[in-house]
Amino acid sequence: MSRRVYLDHNASTPVHPEVLAEMVPYFGDVFGNPSSVHGFGRAAREAVDVARDRVATFLCARPDEIVFTSGGTESDNFGVKGLAWARGGGHVITSKIEHHAVLRTCQALEAQGFDVTYLPVDETGMIDLDDVRRALRPDTIAISIMHANSEVGTIQPVRAIGALARERGIAFHVDAVQTFGKVEIDVEAFNIDLLSFSGHKIYGPKGVAGLYIRKGTKMVSVQHGGEHERRRRAGTENVPGIVGLGKAVEVRAREMKDEAVRLTALRDRLWEGVRARVPDVRLNGHPTERVPGTANIAYKNVESESIVLGLDLKGIAVSAGSACTAGSVEPSYVLVAMGVPLEWAMGAVRASLGRSTTAEDIDYVVESVEPIVRKLRAALPVGAA
Fold it and tell me: Range of 77's domain?
């Protein structure tokens, strides 16, 4: 295998060299507990505070509105449950294509007596603002909508939803794990009350993330123990991870705009190249309102796992648009919600580009995928294609 191409950045990213360098001292020399009052603890606390300032500045928030967590899943659970439990009951609005960290949290709330509305999306994966309006009820306590979906990359109209929520006095939570550090986010301008973000999607370490909580938002903690994070999230802070997250945010602030332009061009190069060489393909997701590096391409009448494995043998890492459940292949719930026909949904493959991706990489993928798909289709039973 001569060439290796990583196109699964929506799943995870390599740690940026500058991030790793900044983290290293906090695994050794600067080891104090940030809750300790002595010099060792104060050194750790200062590092955490620097990271908190960097994240807050990036989001146009205040440092005391940032709570560090262990991952995007914890942030989503904290955001949705913390809002709901603080209100004791009522109605929550979300969408059918949220990450499972939100969907299963909402299902857990339903088991506790809350009502949940799951909004549909159109064929591009976009939520209709009129559907949000129609779903509103006098007892609606929260709206939780992701900024962009990890599979198809469609960017939701969160600014408009935020304005609607603010108008009605309804708390608004945004899962921004897939957009944080990739597109501009201003929690003030977007009227966002809570926002989940993660480190390992932006060239930071795994195991560290955060939740923005607007000052004055009524919340309850979901994790109990000590007085950490201003009594909002108990547990000794992951100092090396938080330092890495803060540095990753600083790097993204410097590189994000130029990188977005570059990745958009490469993403479009991939789609145009595949479309020119492979028959019966379609692009899933919004054609323009999409995360810069995400291309979800469906190959009709071919199983996505077979394409993923074929590309892996060529040194190319992509992800399948469907998941294997209980021994049988099921289409992606996101694509089903978008109304993608089964013969297309079963062949969906996501490529998510990143800072290491080059035009040569994209051309190599295009050259590699065509013979793989051709061979798979040739093996189909007569009349199946």
Answer: 17-252
